[in-house]
Amino acid sequence: MGIFSPKKSLKILFVATEAAPFAKVGGLGSVMYSLPKALSDIGYDVRIMMPRYLSIDDKIHNLVIEYKELEVPTNGDDSRRIICNIKRCDPSPDSKAGVTTYFLENMEYYEQRANVYGYADDAIRWALLCRGTLEFLKQSNSWIPDIIVSSDWQTGLIPNYLKTVYNKDPILSKIATVFSIHNLYYQAMFDHHFVSEMDFDDGHSGIPNFDNPRLYKLNFMRRGIMYADAINTVSPTYAREIMTKEFGELLDELLRERRAVLTGILNGIDYSLWDPDGDPHIPNRFSADNLEERAKNKKALQERFGLNVKKDTLIVSVVNRLSRQKGLDMLFPILEFLIKELPLQLVLVGEGDSDMMTYFHNLETQFPGRVAVHLKFDPILPHIVFAGSDITLVPSRFEPCGLVQMEAMRMGCIPIVRKTGGLADSVEDYNPDKDSGTGFVFEKFDSSSMMISLIRAFENFRDKKKWAHLQKRAMSKDFSWDTSAKKYVELFARAIELHK
Which tens digits make up the pLDDT trace of 277-286? Predict the structure, then answer.
């Protein structure tokens, strides 16, 4: 039997601060739905642990009590404890859960909080999630995972606790760990670039008590990397990049030390959500073999956003967080010129930095009928925008994986990306002579390089036959979670061997 046989089923627990459909702030929430479900679909026993926030309704999701009054120690001598409940949601048509999900319930730290992130005591909230998860497993007689996957810095203390506080526990000491880095830039509650020598966390000291101010100085990301049996990040290129000074966010030396257990697996997208032939959100459904129907979505997009209805206009879309990381400030010196000189239109959906929101709002005022912006995140609009626009821009400074380019390609929208991280792994530069490639890729992080790619895209867009071939190739790329899930199983098997 191969490693993917359900008869060799691993028991896998993902621990995260967000997971769709219960709480989703960013890409992590999407991954925490799709990846566990994909692993479950190929025969593995996969579950999730997350906090129960105010927004997670017991009745809507059919939550039931799994464990009452769990006592979670807050320090080394067990003198002070926080009382939590564990609730559970099993997958059903009513719950929309992908896999069985446990919720750590505590009135003070989760139930009274309207948001997932952004509180002054987040260090305690995430330390409680880490230790609460382990205490629940310690008390549970029904289900013990073979492996725990910690997701990003907020759950980085799980490997640390297991290798120190619980290293002699007869149950917990047998569990292997994978630390999954979704974005190395975020490491703790402070900016890791500006830490005094006195406050620096080398990762070797014990985890402080929850009421000790030193807890707020811990670099949870560093500790996750140090103590996990295996480490992964969300694309092969990003795994290589974070071992360099340019992308390593001051952890490159540590990552180079642990390179033997570091791997990169490209994220996927949920094909049940991104299916142009069955998408309920788009006006006209289509496939790679029926691009004539897709053309109708372009007209519908122009009408919906108040753009001039012109068939041969190149519609450029931006669907992303408006931040410096996403590289959208590179548009500032060139966008006005391009709009004046080329028959193109811009559609933008996203929110973020106030200066960027102001810039794009002013651009819409300056070019009515040519520029349209929706400065608020909307889960439905990306489907409509990708189904109707011709190209989308993803010019990131760095990009661990990126889902936008994959979602766009699935809908026949051609990406222009910078060659970094998951963008480099998922988009092949277009070569018109060989009729190969799936998008337009540029390397240097500057406005001129991006402008050249935009002009390249415009020139090739005018050749309708070649453009249709490009769209079909992009749509046929396999970004489903099936392939990635199998690579994760290989990673888990390796982590278990390393743990032994």
Answer: 999 999 999 9
- Print the domain residue range for 327: 291-478
Residue 474 near residue 438 (C-beta atoms within 8 A):
yes
Partners of residue 72 on adjacent β-strands = 82
DSSP element (H, E) containing 66: strand 64-73
CB 317 within 8 A of CB 345: no
Same-domain check for residues 23 and 125: yes
Tell me the average pLDDT of the chain: 94
In this structure, the chain runs to a length of: 500
Angle between helices 291-304 and 381-388 (to 10 degrees): 120
CB 231 within 8 A of CB 453: no
Global confidence as pTM: 0.93
| 3-state SS, residue 331 | helix
Minimum mean pLDDT among 25-29, 220-224, 391-395: which range? 25-29
Alpha-carbon gap, residue 353 to 118, rounded angstroms: 16
Does 455 share its domain with 486? no
Task: Kindly list the strands in the beta sheet with 414-418, ordered across the sheet, starting from the edge strand earlier in the chain.
Answer: 371-374, 344-349, 314-319, 391-394, 414-418, 440-442
Q: How confident is the model at residue 128 (pLDDT cuts 50, 70, 90)?
A: very high
3-class DSSP string for 176-226: EEEEEECCCCCCCCCCCCCCCCCCCCCCCCCCCCCCCHHHHHCCHHHHHHH
